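Checklist before submission:
- one chain only
- standard amino acids only
- sequence pasted in full

Submission:
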Amino acid sequence: MSGGIRIAVVMGVSGSGKTTLARALAEAWPATFLDADDFHSVVAKARMAGGQPLTDRMRAPWVRRIATELQRRAGAGERVALAFSGLRRRHRDRLRATGLPLRFLFLHGDQAVIAARMRARSGHYMPASLLDSQFAALEEPAGEADVMRLSIDEDPALQLQHALALLEARRPTE
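Returned file contents:
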């Protein structure tokens, strides 16, 4: 496996397509799919479902649980495709602190397009009303060498091709 990347972290605001791309990556790369939403507490999910954003203090144990699971999976020899918002740099840094070879794939795009996607989906606890708070919390990953940008406007098959190419490309630090 060129580049040695073991963890692909598909990041972006809610509704950007993280889960769709991470699932496709898990199949094509191949890797184990993990959804960071599954690591939220029942209380946190209920809060978000009620239209209240999480605070950074509430997110900290969630990020720790994810980092621990990534270490466990990588220790077992697995590759992982993780759907994870990664809104805050400190959260991305916490995953980096695991020492695992990872790469972030940042899905970015127009807020109005993402809002329309969120309104069209069903069965998700995150309401479209929280999208503003997601964009407010997002610390753009400018200057982070392990973060690659992908447009939400790309066709999913093309987006997957680009993601696979980015995972296989060697970075100057590798």
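Reviewer check: Strands lie at 7-11, 32-35, 80-83, 102-108, 147-151.
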